[in-house]
Each structure stands twice: as C-alpha cells, then as structure tokens.
Amino acid sequence: MVDSKGWEWEKANQSPWLKPCEDSYYIANKWLQLRFKNVLDLGSGLGRHSILFAKYGFNVSAIDLSDYGVNNLKQWADKENLDIHIKVGDMTDLPYDDNSFDGVFAYHVISHTDTAGAKRVINEIERVLKPGGEIYTSMCSKESWDFKKSGYPKLDENTVINKEEGPEKDVPHFYADLDDILDLFANFEVEKVRHVDYCYIDSQKQDCKYYYINARYLYL
C-alpha cells in the first residue's frame, strides 16, 4: 500500500474549494430526515463541508492529512463560532472508535491512494460507521483522460501518479469502474451510483469523469 500524500494547498486556487458542492446540501437534508447526529467529514480539505454540516446542526468531526487544511478549518470554525472536532490524520488509519458515526462524507478523497489503500479506507469507514449508517463518496472513473490517455506512471492496474504541476502533483489516484465499486462496497446496500462527465468547466473543455456513491452499511 502506497503512503498517503496530502494536497499542497499553498499551490491551489483555493476559491472553488471554499464553497460546498451541490451534493452536500442534498445529503445534509437527507441525513437530517434520517435523524443522523454524528457526521465525519473525511478528507475535509479547507473545511467547506465541515462548516456546512455544522451549520445544519450535526455533531461534526473532520480529518485531513494536510496541516494547512486543518489549520484553515480551525480558523474558519472559530470565526463562525462552530464546534467542530478537527484532527490531522490518515484515512487509512482513522483515529476514531468503532461505530462512531451515523454518516461519513468523503468527497474527492478516497481515490487519493492505490488499490490496496482504497480497500483499507473502505474497511476503516465500515469500522467507524454505526449499523445502518451511510456513506456519501466519490471515486475517479477509469473513463477519464487521466487514466486512459495521460501516460502518467502507474502503480498498479487501477492507480496512476498525477504528474501535473499543482497541488496534486505526485498524489496517487485510484480509478474505478462500476464493478470495482460494487466489489469495494460489498458490505453496503448501495442506494445510488451516478457517473458524471465534467466535459466543460470554467470556459474550458474537460474529460474528467467521476462516480458518486450513496450507500448504507449493512453491518454483516
């Protein structure tokens, strides 16, 4: 299993990463209706989703590998007067007790590893979720240009190392297809999997495809 490598936020255009994604509003409302209380923002980055979930009234824990991201979230939470339990840590070895969370929100984070790492992360999520708890996550698609045509070096049959200059340089990326996802989430009741093609962003053509997964842990 490859060692985890966090984003270098100092090299990023941070403004897009300070706004919650559209899906987070839907999930927050869904989890309110399910009466979830304890939520983990796994790979919290600069903190946009931790802040959102805390404003919705959830008891939020946040974890990220980046000291820069964690410090940004701490300052943001203090400014908003929000009580968020924030830690620096690795998604492959979560510092939480078993059955700690009703929901785990992991947006564009699980893919930042290799095949063995992805399996380990899913096992850790299973461990910290309560029976009947849910995960909402995303995974890079094997139909993306980065995987099919970029020529980036491969660590294994599913994993490439990003060589583009910027905050993700040298970060491993695990890519999946639907069968991979159903295998990884075999202990979950998969409610929905969407395959999204980001073909045009900010006046530029793109070839970025992602899977978005919402699943409930069966606790077998």
TrEMBL record:
<dbReference type="GO" id="GO:0032259">
    <property type="term" value="P:methylation"/>
</dbReference>
<dbReference type="Pfam" id="PF08241">
    <property type="entry name" value="Methyltransf_11"/>
</dbReference>
<keyword id="KW-0489">Methyltransferase</keyword>
<protein>
    <submittedName>
        <fullName>Demethylrebeccamycin-D-glucose O-methyltransferase</fullName>
        <ecNumber>2.1.1.164</ecNumber>
    </submittedName>
</protein>
<dbReference type="InterPro" id="IPR029063">
    <property type="entry name" value="SAM-dependent_MTases_sf"/>
</dbReference>
<dbReference type="GO" id="GO:0008757">
    <property type="term" value="F:S-adenosylmethionine-dependent methyltransferase activity"/>
</dbReference>
<dbReference type="InterPro" id="IPR050447">
    <property type="entry name" value="Erg6_SMT_methyltransf"/>
</dbReference>
<dbReference type="GO" id="GO:0102082">
    <property type="term" value="F:demethylrebeccamycin--D-glucose O-methyltransferase activity"/>
</dbReference>
<keyword id="KW-0808">Transferase</keyword>
<feature type="domain" description="Methyltransferase type 11">
    <location>
        <begin position="40"/>
        <end position="136"/>
    </location>
</feature>
<dbReference type="InterPro" id="IPR013216">
    <property type="entry name" value="Methyltransf_11"/>
</dbReference>
